[in-house]
Amino acid sequence: MENYKLVEIFSEFKEFKNLDREAMMRIVEDVFRGMLNKKYETDTEEFIDIIVNVDKGDFEIYHNRAVVDDDELEDPLREIKLTDAIRIEPDFEVGDDVSEVLKIESFGRRDILALRQNLQAKVLEYEKENIFQKYKEKVGDIITAEVAHSSKREIVVVDDEGIELYMPRAEQIPSDIYKKGDTIRAIVKSVENDNGSPTVILSRTSEIFLQRLLEAEVHEIEEGLITLKKIVREPGQRAKVAVESYDDRVDPVGACVGPKGVRIHGIVRELRNENIDIINYTTNPTLFITRALSPAKISTIVFNDDNTAANVYMENDQVSLAIGKGGYNIKLAGRLTGYEIDVYRNSEMNNAEEDVDLKEFEDEIDGWVIDALIHMGCDTAKDVLSHTPEEVANRADLEMETVVEVFNILKAEFESDAE
User: Fold this and answer.
1) Among candidates 349, 313, 335, which has minimal Cα distance to 327?
2) Comparing 17 with 121, which gets the higher pLDDT?
């Protein structure tokens, strides 16, 4: 009866969808070999053969021994007495090899139970490792799967082999709504192995997801005619993609958008109407920022001394366009170009050009006074003059006489400019 149950569970193992024939044979043989080695307290590979038939769902174990005279038996594991051999087959003689079938029933109930448990554990271990390796190779690839369960915390989907994959809320586009049975497209973001149990994480918010969608839709990218230089996204809201072509005959922006926008429209729908700006990449920072802030029209760009930030000036009616709904346009432009971008009206530029940094007055105003003014939040002459002398004296903790002298020096600077 126990043998029947063992064969029955073995037959179930061979149906595992993630278990190939060779793996099944290897697992079964390893488990049986381990049991036999433990039982005989030695390596049994030399005198015991295990034959696994995956197709039939069964196995056979043979104990191989050499026939010796009864009084010459030294190693009962590798040798058999002639009298015992004759009971198996009358024609056996000394020196012959005997292969005797070992019945599972002979191992005892406890051994068989342990064998079944080990088989189950090994198969489960193999399946987990198989899933981990399979999806480790797919990291960064788009997959299509069916939603099995959806909750506030995550979406659980299953692939065509029934493997469960997970998409946490942070990896979903905010407007994503899925119910059981829906088909979902996403990239494999990562595969985590937690105590031997693989967890496959999917993402629809990653920049790589948009990259793969573009690569699938725009054959010029796959052919190497167009390079995706950088992608930044606010998932479900807006994305900016910098593209470049080394072939003057290829318009990278036009190729990505497609005739009448046909190429980009499909991607926009997939991303829940996320606005996608395709921008010609350039190493010219002024031109790159100008393109990145489109559709706003820029008048002037002023970079800071260490070339990490840019003050962008434009007409009043262009400021809101540059900032964009929810501030996404300027935020993404900064991430795309690598500059910290601040937007100003042209009128502010004129005022800024007329202003003078307080450090420029070190020859006329004591350094400790300048430090006090800077500490109160005034970096330029106009910053100081925008307050009353009384306010400056109080906030900077300066004598009124000193403040009046500072005001006279600062005002004289602008009066001389006017002349």
Assistant:
1) 335
2) 121
Work out whether strand 79-81 and strand 58-68 pair parallel, antiparallel, or are unpaired: parallel
Mean pLDDT is lowest, of 54-63, 118-127, 147-156, for 54-63
Which residues lie below 8 Å from residue 277, measured CB to CB, with a gap of 6+? 238, 239, 240, 241, 294, 332
Q: What percent of the chain has pLDDT over 70?
A: 91
Render 5-27 in DSSP notation, one character per residue. Answer: HHHHHHHHHTT-TT--HHHHHHH
Which among 227, 204, 50 has a CA at the least distance from the CA of 142?
Answer: 204
Q: Which residues pair with 233 in a beta bridge?
A: 239
CA separation, residue 158 to residues 147, 154, 181 (Å): 7, 13, 10
Q: 3-state DSSP helix/strand/coil percent for the chain, to nearest 5? A: 45, 25, 30
Give helix 262-270 / helix 207-217 axis angle, nearest 10°: 150
The arithmetic mean of pLDDT across residues 301-308, rounded, is 87
d(CA 46, CA 79): 12
How would you list the strands of the sheet with 238-245, edge to edge? 226-234, 238-245, 275-280
C-alpha dihedral sign at 140, 142, 143, 146: positive
Please, are residues 295 and 318 in contact by the beta-carbon 8 Å criterion?
no
DSSP at 55: T
Confidence of residue 181 (pLDDT cuts 50, 70, 90): very high
- DSSP alpha helices (H): ranges in 100-251? 109-136, 207-217, 219-222
Task: Name the residue type at position 111.
Answer: D
- Quote the CA–CA distance of 163 and 418 in Å, as a whole number: 77
Per the CB < 8 A criterion, the answer to whether 306 and 285 are in contact is: no
Tokens of 224: 């190497």
Query: H/E element holding 267?
Result: helix 262-270
Flag whether the pTM goes above 0.70: no
Predicted confidence band of residue 124 (pLDDT cuts 50, 70, 90): confident
Pairing label, strands 58-68, 48-53: antiparallel
d(CA 365, CA 381): 12
